[in-house]
Write a sequence for this structure.
């Protein structure tokens, strides 16, 4: 399944579907204009604050969406690896390699 997804363009329809899958689990993050950067670059610059997610990054969005796609495959379990995690008390099976 993963090999089928590599190097495939994402359509607006797929993006909308992912948004509806993710919505019950995550609150929308703020997207605010950064006045300093806007002035510096002479353009309106907006920053989406994904660090407001429970994990502190955008990665959780892709993880939730991918898990939803696995429903039809009925896996026995899922293991994920990360180089960083700010929720070490989370019992969900996130493995963080030693440095």
């Amino acid at each position: 399944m993963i090999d089928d997804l590599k190097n495939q363009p994402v359509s607006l329809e797929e993006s909308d579907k992912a948004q509806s899958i993710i919505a019950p689990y995550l609150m929308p993050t703020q997207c605010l204009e950064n006045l300093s950067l806007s002035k510096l670059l002479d353009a309106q610059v907006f920053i989406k604050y994904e660090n407001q997610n429970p994990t502190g990054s955008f990665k959780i969005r892709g993880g939730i969406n991918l898990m939803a796609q696995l429903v039809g495959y009925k896996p026995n379990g899922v293991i994920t690896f990360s180089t960083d995690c700010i929720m070490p008390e989370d019992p969900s099976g996130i493995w963080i390699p030693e440095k």
About this structure: The chain has a mean pLDDT of 77. DSSP finds four helices and four strands in the chain. The first strand starts at residue 31 and ends at 33. Strands lie at 31-33, 46-48, 80-81, 94-95.
